Amino acid sequence: MSYESNPILDKLPKHLKQFIKPQNYEEYTAIDQAVWRYVMRKNVDYLSKVAHKSYVDGLKKTGISIDHIPNMYGMNRILKEIGWAAVAVDGFIPPSAFMEFQAYNVLVIASDIRQLENIEYTPAPDIIHEGAGHAPIIANPEYAEYLRRFGEIGCKAISSAKDYELYNAVRHLSIIKEANGTPQSEIDEAEKYIEHLQENMGEPSEMALIRNLHWWTVEYGLIGTVDNPKIYGAGLLSSIGESTWCMTDKVKKIPYSIEAAHTEFDITKPQPQLFVTPDFAFLSQVLEDFANTMAVRTGGLSGIKKLIGSKALGTIELSTGLQISGEFSNVLENDGKPIYIQTTGGTALAYREKELVGHSIAHHADGFGSPIGKLKGINIAIEDMGPRDLKAYKIYEGEQIAMEFEGGVKVEGTIITGTRNLMGKIILITFEDCTVTHNDKVLFQPEWGLYHMAVGQNIVSAYNGPADLNSFDLITHQITESTIKSKKDEKRLELERFYEQIRHYREGKNTTVSRNKVFQALKKDHPKDWLLPIELYELAKQDNNLEFQQEILDHLEHIKRDNPKVGHLIDDGLQLVDTALVS
């Protein structure tokens, strides 16, 4: 096992465990640790004024340190006190898997950390975003329940085939943007491709809509009033650039509502508007309103059509409770209602999320088809017939029968048995020598074997994934592209060593390091690096070494002149040092 488990992680199904990877804590360099420390110091200083009070409280409760990148094992020991856990993954994982982890009270944490060059913002998920953004706020019980419930509903959302294409494109962009030395032309091309995909998505799928809700709440949400909002979204909590930008009048503040589901976002740019929820409980209210529009609750013809469009494994549930899981390929309709459904390839039948004995994908390897609805000219539906009714209508063992359904589907054959649910309703009828037709089209013929007819007058639910997780082999995830670990040259390795020496000095592990020598080597060989000089300035300030302080400040001024883009980062870093030492 590549990770240390605990009672919460033990409950994860196998198909989610395939995404978990070891954190490899020893791979974080001293530069990575300095990036974490800078962002966290800046965040805590600034966010204590503008974030929801749960954030600062949550940092303490979840044991997230300002000075050290969190170790997943340590986090889990503390998270379990609030009923959660965390796992490391490699960058973006498919949205339905991400949400399903949430349904099990598990935070998915991309264990990589952004490069120093992307210290303010990265489109790639990283440990700053997940660990410092998501983890603290789940210490709030109302918000934690919203996150869990969101996962539970979100993983049932039906995707379109284009959603997966977009997911792969976004994952690719996030990887190359964080990889050292990627040519700008390659990044531009990847961004252009995402733009093209977004403009040609067609009717948004349920997954696309619920992903919008996730973005405008969990990632980029504000809470309070439009005039006086506080930050709770992890994307804002972890971005030292956007957390400041979002509080200005340049970002429009809109009261949160279900309309957010229809508001697109662009992962590559700062957001032009944000939604403000009055409180965390209101988030759950909007989520339930949205869930009421989803096929998991509405079923019907539109639900089955969404599943066909997804070209992926999905489930329909009939009014008897019978669940059919497979890849849906066709539906016949009449008067706006489904009258016959068809799957292709391995299909499993279940009741209450438990596979029916004798109805696995091995038994239905070539697909499954069944009429839906009521029999023509009979008021009572088959599922509502008691034993005497069934006998009267010759729906009985050994009877040769011809059934015609409303909509014109005909089933002719000899009944050999029926399967009932716990409430005594018949949910499946098995025939031999059976022919199924619709008008002149043959849907099933006797030489194909036994015919199992599902019983149900309505499709009450349609959703992504199987009813019984054990019915299918779901350990099929292939990561098309892994995060790129740049090969380091000697110069980079030297810079990492300098950072490590200063880190060890500050933490008292090696106080014999000559900070002046390190500074002189930095000026000569790494003149663009600005973060380590700030750390050296902090130590000089602590020692009250005025001459050394001034020398570092002069050097930082040179860097600002040569690279104005980092000017505000340097100023903020110096201000943090000055403020911390005064307080």
TrEMBL record:
Limits of the Biopterin-dependent aromatic amino acid hydroxylase family profile domain: 1-340
Keywords per UniProt: Iron, Metal-binding, Monooxygenase, Oxidoreductase
Cofactors: Fe(2+)
Stored CDD domains: arom_aa_hydroxylase
Gene3D superfamilies in UniProt: 1.20.58.690, Aromatic amino acid hydroxylase (1.10.800.10)
Alphabetical list of InterPro entries matching this protein: ArAA_hydroxylase, ArAA_hydroxylase_sf, Aro-AA_hydroxylase_C_sf, Aromatic-AA_hydroxylase_C
NCBIfam families: PRK14056.1 (NF010657)
Family named by the database record: Belongs to the biopterin-dependent aromatic amino acid hydroxylase family.
PANTHER family named in the record: AROMATIC AMINO ACID HYDROXYLASE, PHENYLALANINE-4-HYDROXYLASE
Descriptive protein name: Aromatic amino acid hydroxylase
Organism per entry: Flagellimonas profundi
